[in-house]
Amino acid sequence: MKHHTPVLVLALAAAFIARADAQIPSVSDVTISQGTSSRAVTVTYTLADASAIITLDVLTNGVSIGQQNIWALEGDVNKVVQPGSRTITWHPEKSWPNQKFGAGVVTAKVVAWNKDDPPQYLAADLVSGDVNYYTCAEAVPGGVQDVLYKTTSILMRRIYACGKSFKMGSPSDEPGHFVSSVNDHREDQHEVSFYNDYYIGVYEVTQQQYYQIMSVWPAYHSNADYRATRPVENIAFATIRGSYYPAVPAGDSFLDKLRTKVAGLAFDLPGCAQWEYACKAGNGDGKWGDGTPISTALAAPTTANNQDYEDTDYNAIGRNAYNNATTTYSSSSSAAATKDQEVDRTCGTDVVGNYRHNSWGLYDMHGNVYEVCNDPFGNDGSSNGVFVNNYGAVPVTADGKYRVRKGGSYQRGPFRHRAAFQLHWDGTAAQDTGLRLAITLP
Length: 442
Fold this sequence. Notes:
By secondary structure, the protein is mainly beta.
């Protein structure tokens, strides 16, 4: 942002947004100015009535310059702020270089969000415990693919689900639709209604993120050169949560320690319906999460119980047995990479975010590792002829040995990667099973 005058003072045009809710705090006295040497822009404002999450937009002639140009921010912004006179510092030389403001009015728009109605993205720092919020993917510092969000910070996206319904399961003509016995209804379609919005992880929890909380590297795929951004796996349910929903996570479990590190956020496993709704991302039946049709390169599944088929269009969407370089899947092989084969990331699991994201910007919802949900599966390892979670946005309350896991893994073909497919898990550590985080909003 170059200037041809030694001092540039931006017009003191105040603007703010108060969302249409009586409980939202008020913002007033907004000013914006620029220093003479550093080119840093200072925004001041007054927050009254209650604490709130504060975000900033900058406009020239009434038009936003774009959130992708305003991420270099410091001070009382992108986090929960207490009432009082507050200051934001913006560094346009970092986020909007080689630009200059026109002759029109420059406006700072300070937005106050109710803490129960937060912005679209949340980033939880696993080192400091700090939490920041961003209005959209473009506002996330460094972009959502920054390695920070795969190592020492958890990035989550809000799913606007409250008051909405969707068909859980799959139609009988979807390629790979599960057919095993007349008593197994795990994929039968049924309507699910949501009563809350929720956040869900943009990525599967990685090994580095798990290490930040637990100080151990438990994963089978443990090559030190590549493990940090691969999904964590080989961890038992007792270590992940240790208690059944709705009980709070057991002491010293991963979720318990994460809640302690990042205070005020009720991190948990997603409910089965939450997971599937986020995976489908608004796409209709017979689609992958990015809207690509589910198809098959084979005339029929390769095994009698419909266990596998190769979808050649799928290899760019998720890590699976057909793009796992060490082996090709067969019904008698687990396709597991051995540790001495792990000379790079082309075997076993892959680094998170290496495949196409779905329509809501979530990565690896299909493939890489199975992801555990809070819902119970039938205690004998089958669905017992009942739906797994037909109760909406929160998991079914039940004890039992088996949990649901979703999304498929690097060991299997696309059949098990479809959003509707669900498999039982006995809770023991497995090299194909990890997790994705969720937070249910009030």
